Amino acid sequence: MTDLNNIHKNLQDLSFEEQLQRLEEIVEILDDGEAALDEMLALYEEGMKRSQYCREYLEKAEQKVTLIQSQNS
């Protein structure tokens, strides 16, 4: 089963691309439907946390791009 404490630590340790790769793995496992319900719930929760992290990362990147553009205008 997924350890959510390790996920939180892992969020800062993995690159954005690695986060996306893990999300793709989670989607494949969930789509397969072969995992036990408890495991699927844990994976869903992990996926939601990773998705939120990626969303926040993209928002920060967008803000940075906007700032750079405004400084160069």
TrEMBL record:
Localization terms from the record: Cytoplasm
GO BP, sorted A to Z: DNA catabolic process
Keywords: Cytoplasm, Exonuclease, Hydrolase, Nuclease
NCBIfam families xref list: xseB
Functional description taken from the UniProt entry: Bidirectionally degrades single-stranded DNA into large acid-insoluble oligonucleotides, which are then degraded further into small acid-soluble oligonucleotides.
Transmembrane parts of this sequence: none
Protein name, per record: Exodeoxyribonuclease 7 small subunit
Subunit text: Heterooligomer composed of large and small subunits.
Organism (species): Pseudanabaena frigida
